[in-house]
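Hello,

I think I submitted the FE2/S2 (inorganic) cluster job twice by accident. Can you confirm which output corresponds to this input? Input:
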Amino acid sequence: MKASEVAEGQGLSGEIGDRAVAVSSSGGVLTVLENICTHMGCQTGWELSAGYWECPCHGSRFNPDGSVLRGPATLPLTSLAFHIENDVIVLD
Ligand code: FES
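Support: Only one job matched these inputs. Its output is below.
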């Protein structure tokens, strides 16, 4: 996944290597989260218009930084360390 593909204020879900990720951009800063719901393990999906990640399984919502906005999940999404090489997001 390329860093330039993630527009300011928006997010993309996909894969980096073998990890499912949810990447968002805010204030020019990228955040990379593991895209696995902390409730029961479903993969989350991005709601561009509302600005939060929402799990399609039971409706948990997460802020772009991974913190819980609405349950049933009670734990945040895992934040993944990364760096960028020639515009490509690489997990550390
Ligand atoms: S698995 Fe995501 S809300 Fe239940």
